[in-house]
Please model this.
Amino acid sequence: MGINKDQVAGRVKEAAGKIQETAGKAVGSVPQQVKGMSKRVEGGVQAGYGDVKQDFTDSAKDAEQRDAEHLKSKP
Model:
């Protein structure tokens, strides 16, 4: 299984959002907490999209490989 840019970017956004949210809580800034939470959720969605995209790509490659092996085994 590989990794794609959406998985990486999403996980980075999630982490940055968590940091921003925690910093907002520490200083008592509700707007920063909300921005951090929003960024964290956005990152989670992007990472999830990347996961699905990667699963689809991996499944397609597996299917191609099985088809190629099946064709080789036919007389």
Notes: Helices lie at 5-27, 30-73. Residues 5-73 form one domain. The chain has one domain: 5-73.
